[in-house]
């Protein structure tokens, strides 16, 4: 019997496949350096873990309200007020099973078949696949190294059609590490206000910004606040990827749509994780700052080393934990005579011959680039980038 035809247009997450491949090779005893992970390599801070343990011991282990307990929603409301200067009430908040789930809920709430979603490239690889699964159409807008991998107001304006439902802005960005400044966001505001489209503002890397940069949200612009759907969560800031808590702040009509979908598809997020997330967001932020500053050191190291590789150019990206080097071009050949014509060829060659794993840029809509995650030790960064250096030195 035929399955859902839409599945034929969807590819499984390449990064998760690569992580599995690296683990397999490591289990076979190979000395592989993996730069693929999209998660902090730190443990969840102790006081957060303790609050999960307390939740279990207190038997807080049952279903909760579909889009989250009031305690956590209230904590999110005050976080948005104090940290982002955003006024919301609990009616504007929905808690989900990770920010990925927040985004899929939002897309399902927004999209009628054929609606267009504008996605600047490079993009987080799940966006277009989720849009397809919701029977929407992704309109990918390529950005360039010169624009810092950020969409301009002109590009946004040109991409909008009568079918446009939303644009996804992800700052700090995965995979480029780019962070939109206050002025850059301001320049998009007029176009967004005029067109009336929704904005999905994916702010999951909010706390990971460097060089004294500050995170801004499009929801901070009063003219468009009601059009903006803020997505955030605890995975990246608090090293809590496995706890699966994300959240949305938006107009009540969006929250009601999300609540309908979530109550029928998944019920509430994990009760224990909600308690831990409440502690993470409302408790001391000292551990977050420690992790942030370690990431900044690693970013500096990785950038310095990559910058020395002839044939590569790499921005010192101010956010998230990724660098996104760009190659001069392909048409190269390995010493074994294998042609390198794409980021996929390049990543395969680096894995097979030099035992270093990067994510090919094609997965993010930019074939000239590859992504490295520096959520790994100084030692691994040095060893892995030396291998990348050797790999490039051998190409003819
Ligand atoms: N948004 C972006 C840009 C991401 O990179 C990720 C995770 O890699 C997510 C959302 C999803 O985060 P979560 O683990 O909370 O589902």
From TrEMBL:
Residues 30-388 form the Aminotransferase class I/classII large domain. Keywords: Aminotransferase, Pyridoxal phosphate, Transferase. It is an enzyme of class 2 (transferase). Belongs to the class-I pyridoxal-phosphate-dependent aminotransferase family. It comes from Uabimicrobium amorphum. GO terms for biological process: amino acid metabolic process. This is Aminotransferase. Pfam families: Aminotran_1_2. Its cofactor is pyridoxal 5'-phosphate. It comes from the Bacteria. The keyword Transferase applies. Its EC number is 2.6.1.-. InterPro entries: Aminotransferase_I/II_large (IPR004839), AspAT/PAT-like (IPR050596), NHTrfase_class1_PyrdxlP-BS (IPR004838), PyrdxlP-dep_Trfase (IPR015424), PyrdxlP-dep_Trfase_major (IPR015421), PyrdxlP-dep_Trfase_small (IPR015422). CDD domains: AAT_like. One of its GO terms (molecular function) is transaminase activity. SUPFAM superfamilies: PLP-dependent transferases.
């Amino acid at each position: 019997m035929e399955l859902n035809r839409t599945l034929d247009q969807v590819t499984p997450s390449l990064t998760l496949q690569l992580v599995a491949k690296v683990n397999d090779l490591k289990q076979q005893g190979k000395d592989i350096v993996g730069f693929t992970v999209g998660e902090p390599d730190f443990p969840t801070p102790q006081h957060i873990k303790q609050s999960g343990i307390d939740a279990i011991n207190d038997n807080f282990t049952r279903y909760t309200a579909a889009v989250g307990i009031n305690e956590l929603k209230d904590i999110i409301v005050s976080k948005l007020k104090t940290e982002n200067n955003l006024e919301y009430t609990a009616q504007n908040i929905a808690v989900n099973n990770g920010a990925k789930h927040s985004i899929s809920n939002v897309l399902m709430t927004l999209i009628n078949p054929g609606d267009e979603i504008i996605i600047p490239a490079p993009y987080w690889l799940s966006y277009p696949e989720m849009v397809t699964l919701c029977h929407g159409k992704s309109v990918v807008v390529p950005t360039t190294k010169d624009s810092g991998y950020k969409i301009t107001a002109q590009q946004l304006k040109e991409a909008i059609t009568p079918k446009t439902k939303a644009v996804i802005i992800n700052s700090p960005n995965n995979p480029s590490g780019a962070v939109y400044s206050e002025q850059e966001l301001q320049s998009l505001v007029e176009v967004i206000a005029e067109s009336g489209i929704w904005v999905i503002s994916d702010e999951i890397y909010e706390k990971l910004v460097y060089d004294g940069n500050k995170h801004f949200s499009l929801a901070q612009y009063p003219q468009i606040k009601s059009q903006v759907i803020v997505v955030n969560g605890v995975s990246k800031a608090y090293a809590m990827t496995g706890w699966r808590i994300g959240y949305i702040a938006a107009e009540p009509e969006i929250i009601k749509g999300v609540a309908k979908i979530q109550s029928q598809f998944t019920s509430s997020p994990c009760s224990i994780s909600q308690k831990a997330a409440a502690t993470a967001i409302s408790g001391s932020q000292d551990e977050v700052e420690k992790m942030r500053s370690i990431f900044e050191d690693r970013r500096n190291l990785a950038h310095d080393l990559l910058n020395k590789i002839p044939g590569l150019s790499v921005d010192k990206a101010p956010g998230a934990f990724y660098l996104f080097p760009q190659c001069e071009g392909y048409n190269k050949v390995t010493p074994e005579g294998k042609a390198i014509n794409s980021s996929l060829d390049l990543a395969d060659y680096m894995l097979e011959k030099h035992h270093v794993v990067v994510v090919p840029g094609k997965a993010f809509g930019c074939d000239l680039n590859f992504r490295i995650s520096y959520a790994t030790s100084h030692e691994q960064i040095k060893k892995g980038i030396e291998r990348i250096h050797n790999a490039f030195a051998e190409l003819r």
